[in-house]
Amino acid sequence: MTEGPDPRLIPRHLRRxxxxxWEVETEGTRLLVRHSHRHSPFVPARxxxxxxxxxxxxxxxxxxxxxxxxxxxxxxxxxDTDLVVSAVQALDPLLKDGIGLTHRRGFLPQPVVRFxxxxxxxxxxxxxxxxxxxxxxxxxxxxxxxxxxxxxxGWLSVLSRVGLHAxxxxxxxxLKVWHRREVAGITLRFHHAGLGLGDIVLLWNRDDPRCMAxxxxxxxxxxxxxxxxxxxxxLVHGRFSRHADSGTLDAxxxxxxxxxxxxxxxxxxxxxxxxxxxxxxxxxxAPFGLSSLCRAYHRYWETFAPMKLGWxxxxxxxxxxxxxxxxxxxxxxxxxxxxxxxxxxDPELSPVQD
Length: 354
Prior knowledge:
With 354 residues, the chain is an alpha+beta fold. It has 2 domains: 9-230, 2-Layer Sandwich (BirA Bifunctional Protein, domain 2); 232-323, no CATH class. The protein is built from 10 helices and 11 strands. The strands form 2 sheets. Strands 1, 2, 4, 5, 6, 7, 8, 9 and 10 form a 9-stranded antiparallel beta sheet that branches. Strands 3-11 form a two-stranded antiparallel sheet. Helix 9 (291-301) crosses helix 10 (311-323). The longest helix is centred in the middle third of the chain and has 17 residues, at 145-161. Residues 329-354 are annotated as: Disordered.
């Protein structure tokens, strides 16, 4: 195992990248970065943006910095997890195998599926959390820590383009290095006017720290929420939020994503996620039809990557599965990214040579 980058360099590089209007404070290994004009009031946007407009603003802001948009990873994975749970999985060859390859790099708006969202005592997802969402990320190999600080500075410009100004942004966290199997890293989290948006992670291969990268990620839905601060369920589910339980809507939304990408219900593997989701949908809803929901969610997911199945097919499959009733099924490997089973690696992955 080789020693990685020095965390003590991060505050220095942040000061240089951000300039004199930013206060970079350290206490031990704790870091806090704040704008000197942070006390100015934040006024939420009066109107929300169409999802495709918000995405285009982020894409154009990154393109102006020379960061091009990358195509989405296939949702079915097979290495460590059955489904893609984070855009950083695009860097697996570099970070886990220590070779100069990536599956994707650049600006990556990646639909992901996670069953780890925070919930209340009754098991309901808290505001700001979804089973499936769009992981808006900047992922790429870097040569030194300077590029880590520059990536955060670039992200501030992106946020400004969507109406989230830098003076309300804070960056904080612990500069201690964490280790997870083949990978080591440092994670710092950023907030806007008190609302958590995401994190920026410096990552490297533990055996070869020259294989180093950044993963700066947020959620598209959470960015939209930060702009307007409108009720979470209304933001995500629109008019349907007034007519159905948010848990049911979340399950239909996520199942539409999986079925639309050709992941059929099954008792194990990626398809087990579909079975698990349909357990959250009351069987009595199937006879009344789910077509309106499926059509709306299908349109949303198509914004990011073409679906293999159209919404009518998705509706038929989902209604059939819900009508089967609730049966116990194994949980798919989507809770963590541990493990090393790559036997179902999707052939659509095409590594990019450094």
